[in-house]
Amino acid sequence: MAELRIDGLDFTRGDFHLQLPPLRVATGEKLAILGENGSGKSTLLQLLTGLLDGKEQIYYDQQLLTQIPTIERARIFALLPQQAQVIFPFSVFEVVLFGRFAQTDGRNPQENDRVQTRLLLDQLDLTHLAERSFNQLSGGEQRRVMLARALNQQAQILFLDEPNASLDVRHSLDIFQFLKQTTQTVISPVHDINLAANFFERFWLLKNGQLLADVSHDELTNELLSETFDVQVSNTAGNFSFSR
Amino acid sequence: MKPLLFTLLGIAFIIALFSGATAINPFAMSNIEQEILLSLRLPRVLFSAVIGGMLALSGSVYQLTLKNPLADSFTTGTASSAALGAVLGIACGLPVPLVPVLALITGLCGLMMVYRLSINDGVINPVTMILAGVVVNIVASAVISFSKFYFEESLSSIVFWLMGGFFIVDWTRLIVCALLLAISFVLLQRIGLQLNLLAFDEASARTMGIDVARLRRFSFVLATLLVAVAVSHTGIIGFVGLITPHVARSLYGSDMKRNLTASTLLGALLLMLADAGARSIIPGGAELPVGIITALLGGVFFLYLLRTRRERLWHG
Known about the structure:
- The complex is a heterodimer of chains A (244) and B (316).
- Chain A is of the alpha/beta class.
- Chain A is built from eight helices and 14 strands.
- Chain B is mainly α.
- In chain B, 76% of the residues lie in helices and 1% in strands.
- In chain B, strands 1-2 form a two-stranded antiparallel sheet.
- In chain B, strand 1 and strand 2 form a beta hairpin.
- Chain B is globular and about 65 Å long.
- The two termini of chain B are 31 Å apart.
- Classes of the chains: A alpha/beta (244), B mainly alpha (316).
- The A-B interface holds A 46, 49-51, 70-71, 73-75, 77-81, 83-91, 94, 98-99, 101-102, 106-108, 146, 149, 153, 159 and B 64, 67, 69, 193-194, 196-197, 199-204, 206-211, 249, 253-255.
């Protein structure tokens, strides 16, 4: 399994500046990244997945990210970007099956890949959409299919950029429950703080490109959240509420 | 999928072989008729099939790599910039085998110009792409017309380049083009699975395990090579690469391996029939440039796509 190590990170684009101290994420950890819009959450994911080149030192299991071949990276981590899309009317099953690309080493998918894909569709309540054209689905359905596609990579680390964006409450809960139970590492910017608090165990609070805090579930206090989001925070029975 | 397509292809081949100014009865051929059939019509029909396959294959690749349902060698301006290179090469007295090389270079320049103009933050704006393609097309066509008129004072050669057709056919050209088509087809088939992943957004594709930049570069060069060689021999024949990938997709699904095959075969079919039409429409043995027929068909198809895909074109 893969451990993620960041040996300090320093990235500048225009007048945006992202700076992180040395950090480690152990195998299987469930890490939520919290922060305002523009605090650097998505940029951080792009740096960690090698989509953006910086001077950063990012290691997966002692291996420098920039030295890992593209197809090998896809076995170490999968990414669900915010704006995932696919042109052409591929079927849902095809889209999810494409996730197997790295696992089959770029060869034609075999029967066991199809079985695995069907299983995953079933787990994510997508079987009834399998033969539908991806582009004809609703936004929430597309999101779940793209999530299934990322999960089907069976990578050791999942970077999921707001996995529950445009999902209804039932499917949000199902997805987070699913992620909580997997053995994979999950690193995920999440906007719904209460959902994040319920399902994640570690939190990075980002503000203006700086890491404000790296805390466990119990250390996620009203004060910290208040400072991160510039709002009033109160907590009743484990639920945060927010006001200006 | 294969039996139906190959049957249709066979029928189109027979139709094309027996269309033309001279009516030939296959069961009672004179020596002259046999000669016409074997040394004039046969290479021409095969040539139109091969060129159709080349243009369609390139169109299938362009639509994928540019993420635009309206992309083909004509709408991206690639064909006219390649033609410009070919015209300049011929005007400068370049040896014949080097003409397609210059066409490839100018074709790639035109394509890259359109690509860079329409891409912003990794996302290609389809409308900007078409507009940029139109502009490249107009400028390249103007330069072609100017140089042809200036150097040769001949209007017919302008028509040759801008409204392409099969005016010069011989076995050498045919074999060169057929070889190129076969090699490109095999190369593209081998990376068919990776090409499928190019249909995803860049972030998804890259983290799924493909080197997007390298794959796109390879596809651009190969598709443009097909266009450059085709254009150097026949001038600009537009829209074959626009129509066929769509028809192939609606018949056989979006998978690129199947789409490459079906597009190529349909391109061959379409151009064989279009050329048969071009040879028979005008009475008395005169020939229409086949580009006129494909432009008519393609223009109508383009309008249809604009109408059905309008929403998605504007809103991505």
